[in-house]
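RECORD TYPE: protein structure
NAME: Large ribosomal subunit protein uL29c
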Amino acid sequence: MSLPKIDEITMLSKSELEDEIFNVKKELFRLRLRRGTKQSFKSHQLKHSKHRLAQLLMIKNRDI
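PREDICTED:
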């Protein structure tokens, strides 16, 4: 599985961008909770989610 591509993000509207940021933050919380409670999860998902969040925030801040 490769890292998320930024091309997909640049085509989103502002409301879609905000929704995606919210969803990624929720996913990161869920993954951190699973890691903290010693439940099984795919560790690469943490890296991919953090990378995706950084991309989303960069596009959001660029448009301001």
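COMMENT: Residues 25 and 38 are 20 Å apart (CA to CA).
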